[in-house]
Write a structure and sequence with these properties.
342 residues; alpha/beta; seven-stranded mixed beta sheet; six-stranded parallel beta sheet; 10 helices
Length: 342
């Protein structure tokens, strides 16, 4: 069996802010045979994530943990798809799977313990797209980052930056369920309103309207911050540290402000960290793979009970992948950014 496969590739290594011109649509045949031991998947939803930009750079600390993306090559990404051919007893034609696919129409994989792929229960009642976001790596990142790294206690004060994004929007809701006081920041008034009116944050503010972030956080957290869920970096991290309480915890999930402008790297006051005994820990989703099914069971129950809302931002068609990716860096997405292929 052979199919013509269209995929997205970068034209060159990407430095600074990405643009649609950095990408191209390419075509190449994908061949599957019954003797191959491989599974052919027709992709339905693709995840669009900010961290991918670091993989596209010539040099990045991310290259220690994730593969570099080279010009002309396929770009691996999480997604959801349907099995259209299988040479493995574990997967049958018609099965829906979620895991590491790619920014392409078809993905061929060979099942092994090293391949992140799970079968989706299509009868669960959840939209398939949820298995890319709230019931996928976004949910795992938010849950693991908050509960394993942040370790919230009832009544503690939690600050979430980039709170209207795929992870931040979940962290705030999870923290509220843990009995915390939660404030988030975002880049537009519409996003701020969503955080408060739809997602149940105690308060939220537009960071663009605040010339002094340290003073802004002092206003929203007069008694200090116990947990900071970090998605931005730069000045935001500096301001949060200045307002942290003793034994505060910083869950460092991302620093999107620094992905495109190395000059905005945070310059944390280490005296704040030392004398307040603040803990900063970086992490990413795959740190929590061993608890994936446990986390998804808990989050799934919260969704069914109406305690958690999934916010999605869906574009249509493979050709929209570059513009969807660029939109992340222009603050144009709300919630989990996805591309629907079929």
């Amino acid at each position: 069996m052979e199919v013509e496969n269209r995929y997205i590739a970068i034209r060159h290594q990407v430095e600074g802010s990405p643009s649609e011109d950095d990408f191209e649509v390419k075509t190449a045949p994908v061949r599957w045979t019954p003797e191959s031991g491989e599974v052919l998947v027709k992709n339905l939803y693709l995840s669009i994530d900010p961290y991918q930009l670091n993989r596209m750079k010539r040099q990045s600390a991310s290259h220690h943990s994730v593969d570099v993306i080279l010009p002309g090559e396929r770009i691996a990404s999480t997604g959801v798809g349907e099995v259209v051919a299988s040479a493995c007893a574990e997967y049958e034609v018609g099965d829906v799977v979620a895991g590491v696919l790619a920014w392409e129409e078809y993905t061929l994989f060979r099942p092994s313990p090293a391949v992140l792929m799970v079968k989706v229960d299509a009868s669960s009642g959840f939209p398939l797209s949820y298995h890319v976001g709230v019931l996928g790596t976004s949910g795992m990142t938010a849950y693991g980052g908050l509960f394993e790294v942040g370790k919230p206690h009832k009544g503690e004060k939690v600050f979430v930056s980039a709170a209207s994004g795929s992870v931040g929007s979940l962290v705030g809701q999870f923290a509220k369920l843990a009995g915390c006081y939660v404030v988030g920041c975002a880049g537009t008034q519409a996003k701020v309103d969503m955080l408060k009116d739809k997602l149940g944050f105690d308060d939220a503010f537009n960071y663009k309207d605040e010339p002094d972030l340290k003073s802004a956080l002092k206003k929203y957290f007069p008694d200090g911050i116990d947990i900071y869920f970090e998605n931005v970096g730069g000045e935001m991290l500096d301001a949060a540290l200045a307002n942290m309480n003793t034994y505060g915890r910083v869950a460092v999930c991302g620093v999107i402000a620094e992905y495109t402008d190395p000059g905005r790297r945070a310059a944390p006051d280490f005296l704040e960290i030392i004398y307040k005994r603040i803990t900063l820990r970086g992490f990413f989703a795959y740190d929590f793979m061993a608890k994936f099914h446990e986390y998804m069971g808990i989050i799934g129950d919260w969704i069914r009970e109406g305690k958690v809302q999934a916010v999605e931002d869906v574009s249509e068609g493979l050709e929209s992948v570059p513009s969807a990716f660029v939109a992340l860096y222009r603050g144009q997405n709300v919630g989990k950014k996805l591309v629907k292929l079929a």
